[in-house]
Amino acid sequence: MIKIAVLGCGTVGGGVCQLLIQNAHDIAKRTDKCIEIKKVLERNPQRAYDLGLKEDQVCSSLDDILNDDEIKIVVELMGGIDFAYECIMKAIDAGKNIVTANKDLISVKGEEIFALAKEKNVDVCYEASVGGAIPIIGAMQNILCANTFTDIVGILNGTTNYILSKMYEKGWSYSKALQEATDLGYAEADPSSDVEGTDAARKISILGSIAFNSRCTLSDVYCEGITRIEERDIVLAKKLGYTIKLLAVAKERNNKILLFVRPAFVPLAHPLASVNDVFNAAFIKCDAADEIMLYGRGAGSMPTASSVIGDVMTICQNIANGTTGKLGLECYKVKEISPVTDLRSSFCLRLRVADQPNVLAGVASVLGKKDVSIESIIQSPVKNSGTASLTIITHPASEQDLQTAIEELKACEYVKKANIYMCLDMETM
Amino acid sequence: MIKIAVLGCGTVGGGVCQLLIQNAHDIAKRTDKCIEIKKVLERNPQRAYDLGLKEDQVCSSLDDILNDDEIKIVVELMGGIDFAYECIMKAIDAGKNIVTANKDLISVKGEEIFALAKEKNVDVCYEASVGGAIPIIGAMQNILCANTFTDIVGILNGTTNYILSKMYEKGWSYSKALQEATDLGYAEADPSSDVEGTDAARKISILGSIAFNSRCTLSDVYCEGITRIEERDIVLAKKLGYTIKLLAVAKERNNKILLFVRPAFVPLAHPLASVNDVFNAAFIKCDAADEIMLYGRGAGSMPTASSVIGDVMTICQNIANGTTGKLGLECYKVKEISPVTDLRSSFCLRLRVADQPNVLAGVASVLGKKDVSIESIIQSPVKNSGTASLTIITHPASEQDLQTAIEELKACEYVKKANIYMCLDMETM
After folding, report:
1. Which of A304, A249, A299, A242 is nearest to A274 (CA)?
2. pLDDT tens for each residue of B15-48
3. Of B133, B134, B146, the CB nearest to A310
4. CA B316, CA A249: separation in Å to the nearest integer?
5. Which of B239, B250, B263 lies closest to B422 in space, CA to CA?
6. Residue A171 included in any domain
7. Is residue A340 predicted with pLDDT exceeding 70?
């Protein structure tokens, strides 16, 4: 029998309780142990009772858990940073192993947590912190561990992927899609951490740390959300054979790490283009396995519980074997973070220009001087405006060079407006 | 330092040697050990020398490996059944841990191998035996281990997926696509085990054993290949919004297991539809994680080596921890195998019928009596033949009922020909 404590009885806590009951027989068979929730820490006891927990299982003080030597694993499902951090550090200090789904915490305080865990010889597992049910972290840390990773391209936020999918499939506006996501419970009352990309940025910083063995944190990630995307952007992407996805990317080139979250054009033939609605995926490039994509539900009660209980079962085996203290996220290298303008990619450049002769030649010449080579151009007059819209897909180019070219273009009197989307490149990724 | 032996210096053996050198530093860091190939068993020493191995590393007798106490892990990469089985059983008996990429062997002789390994307290790892580089087996056995699995739907053979992708994308005939696959080295001189579905059947029997904890072997799998697929089948699928894939399926319903390999219509919106060329994928349904898809390269030197070395690294840690003997494939349940006609699915039924009044009503009536409900019908006359083709997509129905209905239809004088394709159902899978 392994006894665990659960901090927080919200949505995921409910899934954890249900899954432990539902699959009790097989879980016991696979781990050689029954897993029992001895205590839950929850301010509102009714929530715990609603999950079928008894009065003596519910406590309101962390000390009741810390001082209980029978409890070997503490499962943190409260979210947030400060109090969760305090609880986890105290629990590790008391010799408890930790399972957490808390991406905010791992992204921001990972270094301190993993260091203390190593010192105290306990495991810290966090599979559920990125991609919900999707076996991303375990796959990278174990099954694919013979590889050198070069690129992780993720769709790591279900809310924004739902919004973008509906804008694409149904032609909805951003605000209608957001409203629908809110009504369905996918978006929170304050959706800013989703739609501004922060949630995805936290997750990609965790995957970057794993992939490159060098600590990446939220502040290392360049972050752009989906709030500026208009219906006509989606229409254009569709016309050109792309869809728009909020990509969370971690790349290593020349020992430097590039981390960003930004909306991007994804070619319809790319496996990530078929990741729709609230589903998440991580597309991984590495030297031996080459291309791997892992796809599934990135959130939700039972999917998150799947990863949480998976972690609990792993720790159970380590406890039985006397081998705890090896699972965590050790970063044994220190690599520089590149500015996002170091990115080399294809881009979709959109210009509003005066509808007059020689403009195209002028634009092409400015781009050419900066080594930005053009794959295709579509020019179309904008009715009754005396202007035309120019859509240019570039070959892979340095974003720095492209940005310099855009500054130069903006200074030309015939250029009225300019903006870019990154295009995911089928050849390089 | 962990010393290993490799049996067979073919394509994958070359990848293993290269990967151990290429990522030596990180492999040592992650396992706390250097991994060294002490011996390779290879009849043609030149193949070993070509991989950079020295004379004293090459042996032609298995005994040189069995009697070497420094060798802790034997990596079997020869393929085939009889000699590989003999080598593996002897190696286990001599206390060596095993890594193998041999699906034929695991599918047919798994029970004996895992039983002896348990007795001898050694690990047997076989991640590379299904889906090459794709982290399927480890994900199901570890990260997703809190789940009850209900369905595995795989595209598990790269050669046939390449052929079907090219028939779909380029309109090639089966024989042209097969020729191209042979020219590119994807298909072997005798492609029968690929195109007849046996290779995929072996792999799905392994995944079925893992998913349902009950031993499934090759002989449990109903198997139909891709040789009967014609260009007009592909054209029809495209017209109806499907692609055709060779699906390897393992399902559990009511404690019974259904295993089959057959070509099927896959809706274009399903994630499996975008798995093209030589790529493989496993689409997994389970109770907590819900839907998971794992995608990547199913074969090739380096991708297979990725999984092989991943397994070697796992065993290295178990040796260091003194915890070998727990990795294998224990099947602690015995479940019945259902006949394939127990399948419930949507189907595409194609009939060639006499072009005369009331035929449609007659067909609908025969289907209706067998509880086969119709989703859509397309009827088109076949020029100058006095016949028409009827294409019917059914709602989910019992294959048994549908087959009985087809027998009845074939007895009608107005029905000239009838055949069916299974349709992957977006709602149930």
Report:
1. A242
2. 999 999 999 999 999 998 899 999 999 999 999 9
3. B146
4. 32
5. B263
6. yes
7. yes
Q: Are strands B149-155 and B124-125 parallel, antiparallel or unpaired?
A: unpaired
What's the N-to-C CA distance of chain A in angstroms? 46
- One domain for residues B145 and B281: yes
In this structure, the answer to whether residues B140 and B289 fall within a common structural domain is: yes
**B189 and B233 share a domain?**
yes
Contact of B303 with B133, CB cutoff 8 Å = yes
Assign residue A246 a region (left: φ > 0; alpha: ψ between -120 and 50; beta: otherwise): beta
Substitution target in A18, A27, A126, A143 with the highest count of B β-carbons within 10 Å is A143
Of B144, B296, B307, the CB nearest to A310: B144
- A336: in domain: no
Question: Both B289 and B315 in a single domain?
Answer: no
Q: Which DSSP helix (H) or strand (E) runs through B366? A: helix B359-369
Nearest to A293 among B127, B147, B295 (CB): B295
Domain check: are A236 and A291 in the same one? yes
| Alpha-carbon gap: A145 to the closest alpha carbon of chain B (Å) | 6
For B118-139, the pLDDT digits (tens) are 999 999 999 999 999 999 999 9
Question: Are residues A165 and A257 part of one domain?
Answer: yes
Task: Please state, rounded to an integer, the average pLDDT across all residues of chain A.
Answer: 94
Pair (A286, A151) in one structural domain: yes
Among all chains, which residue has been given the structure tokens 């080598």?
Answer: B87
Note the pLDDT of residue A155.
Answer: 98
Q: What is the pLDDT of residues B204-257, one digit of tens each?
A: 999 999 999 999 999 999 999 999 999 989 999 999 999 999 999 999 999 999
Domain count, chain B: 3
Residue B268 sits in the same domain as residue B401 = no
What the block records as the tokens of A58 is: 């519910």
Closest to B393 (Cα-Cα) out of B376, B418, B406, B380: B376
pLDDT for B429 equals 60
Residue A237 backbone dihedrals phi, psi, to 5 degrees: -55, -45
Instruction: Output the CA torsion sign for A134, A140, A143, A149.
Output: positive
Q: Which residues of B touch A138 (CB under 8 A)?
A: 138-139, 142-143
- This model of the complex carries an ipTM of 0.95
B100-118 tens-digit pLDDT: 999 999 999 999 999 999 9
Range of the domain at B221: 136-296
Low-confidence ranges of chain B (pLDDT < 70): 426-429
Let me know if residue A199 belongs to a domain.
yes
Q: Which residue carries 């040697």 as its tokens?
A: B17
Closest CA to A81 of A176, A185, A218, A175: A218
- A:99-158 residues touching chain B, CB 8 A cutoff: 127, 133-135, 138-139, 142-148
Could you tell me the two tokens for A293? 């994509």
- How many angstroms separate the CA atoms of B82 and B79, rounded? 9
The position carrying tokens 């492999």 is B27
List the beta bridge partners of residue B253: B256
